[in-house]
Design a protein that fits this description.
By secondary structure, this protein is of the alpha/beta class. The chain has a single domain, classed as Immunoglobulin-like (Sandwich). Helices cover about 15% and strands about 35% of the residues. It has one helix and eight strands, in the order αββββββββ. The protein is globular.
């Protein structure tokens, strides 16, 4: 009986841990006030090109162009100004990339496939 209870308790812990790891992004782990902000990637560039957000907010880039796009932190091609801010691959039309900003500052970024297309995220 004790063994059965132990197995059930262990299964419950594994189930809860698995559900937690698949939880949707909510900015900074569900903190009050965190929001999600969208940036469109168009043939004209990033819209908006300059975006001011709060620490803990998540930005979602959505490609609405053909030919691929790849949002990534400056400097090109290393993407080291803000480690982790790199889609790591090109996005096709309709695909998205999201990043939660937790470090304050002004962060330049670019389209790795078209490095003259640039944007700025200001994190307060």
């Amino acid at each position: 009986m004790k063994t059965t209870f132990g197995i059930i308790a262990l299964m419950a812990v594994v189930l809860v841990a698995g559900c937690a790891s698949n939880a949707p992004a909510t900015g900074n782990g569900g903190a009050t006030g965190a929001k999600t902000v969208n940036v469109a990637i168009t043939d004209s560039g990033f819209e908006p090109e300059v975006l001011a957000i709060n620490s803990g907010d998540t930005v979602v880039w959505t490609s609405s162009k053909d030919g691929g796009t790849w949002p990534a932190s400056d400097d090109h091609p290393a993407h080291t100004k803000l480690p982790g801010f790199d889609a790591l691959k090109g996005l096709s039309r309709g695909q998205t990339y999201q990043f939660t900003f937790t470090k304050t500052g002004t962060w330049g970024y670019h389209d790795h496939l078209h490095p003259t297309v640039v944007g700025t995220i200001i994190v307060k």
